[in-house]
């Protein structure tokens, strides 16, 4: 890899080689520490959709509900009654939105493949969730800035994604085997993001991050 590549999170040039396997290269940004797969090694839309079509998640799956509750539970502790939310990347079997609605929080959904109507992206929300989504984003910087802009003052952005902890752990990590995973965040990446967005940051679980927008209207 000789050509300079810009980081898809912070747009800084000069990413360096971090890891390589039989299928892909993994580069690391020297500013925000994001590890990412270069764009020319991403799946095309049809191949990506084919992977997602294999998912069999649904609201009837108790195990999947337990998994999602790791994001839902800390958010519920912070939301006011009736707070309105948006679930991004809801997938072929929307479940987190159902769970929040059962708890009294109206939810809209958006998914580029399974719920592509962009109308929900023109409204404002008290909270936005994205579970196992940011690792799929080709341009997470642009996408997360856009989502933060949809929050009302004091609103929450709840993200679930497994985090990079060390180079050694990365080389043996099952998470990088999914060909649709192209961006890998560390705690430092999220700290950079929180500063960029001017949002309060908290790590609610080993793979759950909550960012809160200022109460001041912009």
UniProtKB/TrEMBL annotation:
Biological process according to GO: methylation
Gene3D superfamilies linked: Vaccinia Virus protein VP39
UniProt key word Methyltransferase: yes
An MF annotation (GO) of this entry: methyltransferase activity
Keyword Methyltransferase: yes
Pfam family, one: Methyltransf_23
Keyword terms: Methyltransferase, Transferase
InterPro entries membership: SAM-dependent_MTases_sf
Protein name, UniProt field: Methyltransferase domain-containing protein
Species per Swiss-Prot/TrEMBL record: Onishia taeanensis
